[in-house]
Structure formats: structure tokens, C-alpha cells
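INFO batch 0412 | record 1 of 1 | parsing
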Amino acid sequence: MTATAQHSTFYSVDGRGFAGDVSLGTPLLVGDFLVLESPGIGQLVGQVLGKQVRDGAAHTTGVVRGALDPDGSVGPLSPVPFADAQSRPAPPEVLAAFQESAGADMLVGHATSGSREVSPVRLRHKGFARHTFVCGQSGSGKTYALGVVLEQVLAETGLPLVVLDPNGDYVHLGTVREGADPERVARLGSPDIQVLRAGPVSEVDPAAHAAVRFVELSPAAKAATLRLDPVQDRREYQSLMQEFDVSPTSEAAEEMVHRLRTGGAGVDPDLSLRIRNLGLLEWDIWSRGHGSLLDVVDQRPRGVVLDVSRCEVPQERSIAALALVDHLWARREQRRPVLLVIDEAHNFCTAEPADAVQAAVTDRLVQIAAEGRKYGIWLVLSTQQPHKIHPNVLSQCDNLVLMRMNSTADLAHLGDVFGTAPPQMLSAATSFRQGEMLLAGGFVAAPVITRVAQRLTVEGGSDVPVPPRGG
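INFO prediction complete | emitting C-alpha cells
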């Protein structure tokens, strides 16, 4: 079918929505854009949002997105009821004009309509001033797609990124991929991406060590790390507050560690024993008098990637996350915008925390989700298990990136949360191919199903292939 081929006619009783019957064989998909034309209304841009088989035809419904002006631009809609409007598939230039009218300027993919026309899909950079949720099951291309989105944030905005990366998937975000589109690479430039890696100090450049100073943690965070209750363990709690009320210098840290290990004079023996029994002194996440990841975050490079994939103790990841979110929240009155990206978010803002530290991270993220937007702290949460995300965090997300998801229960839950995602477009996620995604919310001109664009930087999260049988 060509872009000038005609569909059946449509009508509208309010000038905002439209409906009509088309033959079952008409190549018109849910999500497709149309140009609707009638003498009384001129030309309008509409989008199909639903199709149902009725009396041997496909009853088709949709919404009018804007007015197509004679010069090819798309302007605001002045609702006028219409009947017998002729339709044709919207060509790529109309979709481009519609996205331009909405301020969409970040190329993230390409949409294919039932007429097989391919149109670029762009996000609105202003739409990132709200929280974003990215989900898809394993193998759907979620890591790759999020990488494309983050590249565009770097290329088209001045918004600093801080990425909490539990699998080391984004450590090459500043490394341009060989063969990448030169024009798009030029837009990306050479972003200043600081990669900090947690793990054994002997294996990490000290200047790039993702570590925190214990003394920098809030009192509540210190107590959670030591599993102390301020009431039930009031003596040890008080000793903790006094013992770690010190300057975070190298000498102070070394002296403190020595006294805790040896139970030196002035150290509460119960507190010292608790610390040694938990093995805290051996954790690699502590800076031991050297630099802290919070120092790098405060410098505000274009991007900071905190690779915590090599933490040998699971709680170390939570400690890094807690130090980070507490630090950003404590400085919220500075109103310095930042996009906080959390991969495998179900481990950091979970509905069922496994320990006190994870609970503290979750509580802080609940607070940031509810109040962070007015301070310029915006979240991007990525997971393959949306049902494990704390509901008070998920409910505050406005933008949705949905990739293949086979769980109908998860899709139903997402439909309840994201009202901007049309039900039939949402349900299509069960049959998405790798790299296909539904975009909905304030960061896109209209809900759209698209195939993700090519990465500009090196992907860090590709799967390990199954080796073929040797010859």
C-alpha cells in the first residue's frame, strides 16, 4: 500500500476521538498515524488506538493528535465533529512534523506502520523532568535500548547522568562504537564519562575506585549497616555515633580501623565485636582514607557510572546506593538537576527489602520518587521484574519504556499505573521482537511502538552466545 491509498471513512462526535469500520485485510495497525481529511475540517493527524472485530469488519478507534497545516507543519487541534472523513497513512514527513511540534528531538528508534512506511521516532528532552520506568524480560534488548536513551540524553541535553550499574553494562557509555553514524556521533561529542569500579582495591585504580567513607554515611545508614536498633541496641548505637564522629582523613581512618580491630582503648567492646563479626572491616566498598565516589558525583561530570558488579558482598552494592541517594537528597536544596539511572532497580527499591540497608535505600528512593522532581532529581529505573518494585516508587513514574514482557499479570499492573499506554499497544508487548519497545508518557509526542535505533557507543551487556559444536 502506498501513502496515498485510501482507507474507509471515519467519523467523530466530539472532534477529539474518531471511529469507523475498515475491512479485516486493511493494513492498519494499532499505533499507526493517519491523515484524516474532510471539507469541513481540512486535514488532521490521527492515531489508531484500538481495533475490534465486529460484524465481519475491524471497528477502529483513535484520537486526533493535531491539525495538519497547508505548509506541512502540525498545529494545535480545534475540535470540530466530522463525518465521512477520508484517511490515508501519515507519511514520515507528517510524523516528523508532529513530533517537532511536541518538541521531540532525541532519535531513539524507527516505527513501521501497516503500510510499511518507516518513520524516525524521537523523545522530548523536556520529558525527562519526570521519572521514567524501563522494563522488559531477559533477552528483550532492554540494556541496549536504555543505552540508546542515555546516549541521546548526553547528546541533546546538558543533564548530568549518574548510573548505578550492578552488572557493568554501561561502563563503555563514553566509548564510540566502530561504524556508528558519524552525524549522530558528532552530536554526541566526547562526553566526560567517569567510570568508577567497586571491588578489591588491589584490582582497581585507586582514582577510579567506587568506594565510600563510612563516616560520610548518615546516622541511620551507619546503624543500618551494623544492624543496630537505636532503642534495642541503644548503648552500642550511642557508641557508634561517638566513635565515628571524626574527620574523613586517611590518618583518622587508619587509626580507627586499627582500634576497632584490636579493641583499643576507648572502643566499646560490644561495638567492636559486632563490627568484626559482621566482617565490615574487610569490605572493599570502604575508601580507607582515600577518595569517595561522592567526591566525583559532586564534580558533576557529564556522566558517572558506578560499576558495582564486582562487589563480593551483596550488601556492598546497597551501601554504595544508600550513600549515593542520601548524598543527592541531602543536597536537594541546591536544585542542581541530575538524572539518576538505576539498573536492576528491583534490588534497590524493592517491595520486600531483605535487610535494613536495602530498606533504607528503598525508603530514600520512595522519598525521591515522591518529592525529587521539584528539586531536579529525576529517576530512570530499569528492571525485568516490575512486580518487585516498591509500589510507591512505580506509581510516581510517568514515562514508560516497555519491551517484550510475557507476564500478563505484569502487563495488567503496568496498565493500571501508566494510563497513557493504550491497552492494545500494551498487550502487544507479549509478541515484541528483540529491540521492539512501546514508548508512552510525557517524554514522547504520543504513544508509539518502535524498533530501537543503533547504539553509538559500545554495549556492555550483550549476552554470551552458545558456542557451536566443534568441528
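INFO post-check: Confidence is low (pLDDT under 50) at residues 1-6.
INFO record closed
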